[in-house]
Write a structure and sequence with these properties.
Its EC number is 3.2.1.22. It comes from Nonomuraea solani. Residues 1-25 form the signal peptide. Helix 1 (6-13) packs across helix 6, helix 5 packs across helix 6 (161-176) and helix 8 (255-267) packs parallel to helix 10 (289-295). The chain is of the alpha+beta class and 642 residues long. Helices cover 15% and strands 35% of the residues.
């Protein structure tokens, strides 16, 4: 590999950045399309053509770009020029671009700013920016994703990662010109592209705190969104924050969670690039034109927080015609009512996912299901429409209650519903609430389920007696005037009287760092059932729970239990390594702590008073080092109940 002098590196740093308007010429809004990332190095000319065929019906909605994400390059250049892998792309890139354009679409490619591509073994564009840009443009490429891989940091002595990024990215942007979308994919936690991507002419810039593909999981998606929101002030028309690909259709999240991602990405004016096979991406999520219009709004604004308390979020985004998009996002694990003020005059409120139109004189409120985001378009209007109605099922019993309610099989429990005339523009007449429960369950209204009229601001509450028939997690649906509200409940038995081993009981929720929590065995490795007998400093225990910290195990105790006891320690299967703290939480407060224990220490008995608690959690915390060996045992763990 050739090297350059420090003086040459410094000269690169002085290259002028293109103004953001040059990037805006290539795309009016954040780019939309499909990426081959899921295919990895199994990508081929045929698979890309099939994806283009499947994406073409979505082109009228704005899905334009078919993007090859690595593994398309041959291992070596041909006569100094980039060449496609002859086995994967025998027809060449120009022919593929022509095919894609024939479908009304455009082709995108990934290139690397370093010496090699990120995957597949192809060459990088370092020191070949002008030639490579000219070549891909000649092929008919309209989008370049410029990756941050195999960067020759040694060629930039005395420069930090941000400065190297500022040296390497503008030359490719300038060589591509304004008609090619330039997706700056160089976030590794230290290049901070949001600080300079706009001035460098980037159409999009990644916002993850590490340069890792987004996982198809709700918790990861929510974390990435929160990070993306921290960059909102730097985004805008022509230079958009990119929190990574749309996951809908891959199967790792529910449809509600996929709709949440799409809503949050639209509020952030983020690229809408599908990762799933376009044929498998659910149209109910990815093909809603009114939601897409929020993402593609010509103002290009990145939505910002109105309020947020860590679980419940209100976001607002100004739109070009003076309207606002408002999203209510419930990040927690149970339904919650979220509200916001929209102004003192009359407003038209359109739910962009259901199409329902209502009106309000100031407040917008709704019960938002767990992990869901509702999206509204709000405009000042005297239009006559029904008032905004807040319909709640099983509202939280206290502030911060983020668990599903728990019922016991065969025992009647209470569930509340509430109907509130929130909008205040007209009375709500003939209010009646009905209930749907799973087969074998019983439900009965303990208070009247019908009322004649609700004036502005009034609430109608119904108390329901619900008797479940079997353990598990179920949904209860309540209906009122074409509206529905869903309560997710867990059905679990509280421990019986006397002393019971916790490993003989069913938990209501569980989290574990690696692999599953094991009953009456150590954690072992990632696979279920691979643990060994629980052993702490040579003492073997027949009963208990084997975890890998950080871990949490929760039980429903229904206020009938008094004490939890266990022997806390690091399992001998990791030798003297590992460290953890062991805690017991009763409802919202910690009631016992073991102190820090290491693999070189004997077990320590923990006794926790839990009288009156509805839920009890056993928690293993990381000891402050890495978590590699934190195999934390709750040996001889028991609970005593009345």
């Amino acid at each position: 590999m050739r090297t350059i002098t420090a003086a040459a590196a410094a000269a690169l740093l002085t290259l002028p950045f293109l103004p953001v308007t040059s990037a805006a010429a290539a795309v009016a809004g954040p780019p939309m399309g499909w990426s081959s990332r899921t295919l990895g190095c199994s990508v081929s000319e045929q698979s890309v053509r099939q994806a283009a065929d499947a994406l073409a019906p979505l082109a009228p909605l704005g899905y334009r770009y078919v993007i090859l994400d690595d593994c398309w390059l041959a291992p070596q250049r041909s006569g100094g020029a980039l060449a496609p892998d002859p086995a994967r792309f025998p027809g060449g890139i120009a022919a593929l671009a022509s095919y894609v354009r024939g479908k009304g679409l455009k082709l995108g490619l990934s290139l690397s700013a370093g010496t090699k591509a990120c995957a597949g073994g192809g060459p990088g564009s370092y020191k070949s920016e002008a030639a490579d840009a000219a070549q891909v443009k000649a092929w008919g490429v309209d989008y370049v994703k410029y990756d941050w891989c195999n960067i020759p940091a040694a060629d930039f002595p005395g420069q930090n990662v941000q400065q190297i990024g500022q040296a390497l990215y503008p030359p490719m942007r300038q060589a591509l010109g304004p008609d090619v979308v330039f997706a700056m994919n160089n976030e590794d936690g230290s290049t901070v592209p949001w600080l300079w991507g706009k001035s460098a002419g980037a159409t999009t810039w990644r916002t993850n705190v590490y340069n890792r593909p987004i996982a198809d999981a709700y918790a990861t998606m929510a974390d990435i969104w929160e990070t993306n929101q921290l960059r909102a002030e730097y985004a805008g028309q022509g230079s958009f924050a990119d929190p990574d690909l749309i996951q809908a259709g891959r199967g790792g999240m529910t449809e509600t969670e996929y709709r949440t991602q799409f809503t949050l990405w639209a509020m952030g004016a983020a690229p809408l690039i599908l990762q799933a096979d376009p044929a498998k991406a659910p149209a109910s999520v990815v093909a809603n034109p009114k939601v897409i219009a929020v993402d593609q709004d010509k103002l290009g604004a990145h939505g910002t927080f109105v309020t947020s308390d860590g679980w419940y979020h209100v976001l607002s985004k100004p739109l070009e015609n003076g309207d606002r998009a408002i999203a209510l996002f419930n990040e927690s694990d149970r339904s919650a009512t979220i509200s916001t003020k929209v102004g003192s005059t009359r407003h038209r409120v359109e739910d962009l996912w259901t199409g329902a139109v209502t009106s309000t004189t100031g407040e917008l409120a709704a019960q938002v299901p767990a992990h869901a985001a509702l999206l509204y378009r709000v405009s000042a209007s005297q239009e006559q429409a029904p008032p905004v109605v807040t319909f709640e099922a099983d509202p939280p019993k206290f502030l911060g209650d983020d668990r599903p309610s728990v019922l016991e099989p065969g025992v009647a429990g209470e569930i509340l519903t509430r109907v509130t005339n929130t909008g205040g523009t007209a009375p709500l007449r003939g209010v009646e609430v009905t209930a749907d429960v799973p087969a074998g369950w019983k439900v009965e209204a303990r208070t009247p389920a019908r009322t004649g009229s609700l004036a502005a601001g009034e609430t109608f509450t119904v108390t329901w007696a619900v008797t479940p028939s079997a353990e598990g997690t179920r949904e209860l649906t309540f209906r009122q005037g074409g509206r529905s509200a869903t309560a997710v409940v867990t059905v679990a038995r509280a421990p019986g009287p006397g002393r019971t081993y916790l490993s003989d009981l069913a938990w209501t929720s569980v989290k574990n760092h690696f692999g599953p929590v094991e009953k009456d065995a150590s954690n072992g490795e990632r696979a279920a059932g691979d643990g060994r007998p629980l052993t702490i400093e040579g003492v073997r225990y027949a009963k208990g729970l084997g975890t890998h910290a950080p871990a949490e195990i929760e039980y429903h105790t229904a206020g009938r239990c008094t004490t939890v006891e266990f022997q806390a320690g690091i399992d001998d299967e990791v030798g003297s390594a590992g460290s953890a703290g062991f805690e017991v939480w009763a409802d919202g407060g910690r009631v016992a702590y073991s102190g820090l224990l290491t693999g070189a220490m004997p077990a320590r008995k923990v006794t926790a008073p839990i009288k009156g608690a509805r839920f009890v959690r056993l928690v293993a915390t990381n000891g402050g080092d890495n978590a590699t060996s934190d195999h934390a045992d709750f040996a001889d763990a028991t609970i005593t109940c009345e």
